[in-house]
Amino acid sequence: MVSSSKKSKKSVETSDLKSEGRFLILHNDNINTFNYVIDTLCDVCNHNEAQAEQCAMITHYKGKCDIKKGTLDELKVLKELLLERKLSVTID
Fold this sequence. Notes:
Layout: H1 2-20, E1 22-27, H2 34-45, H3 49-62, E2 64-70, H4 72-84, E3 88-91
Antiparallel strand pairs: 1-2, 1-3
Helix pairs in contact: 2-3
């Protein structure tokens, strides 16, 4: 019995981590300029300019970059706003 209660507690903790440990990922495209991406990340994700520039550079050279961590509900809102601005984003 003790092991089963430990197992259910661990299951709940893992579930909590999954719901809060999601990432919003920016994917590289050949459409948007660096300045547009930087401005959009500042406006939508509240990045400062240096942070937004770093995310844009990582995305350009590596193909994608984690731009925000949070719960699924929080990230869905940001994803929709970024999609409206024609950025390529996913939640992982």
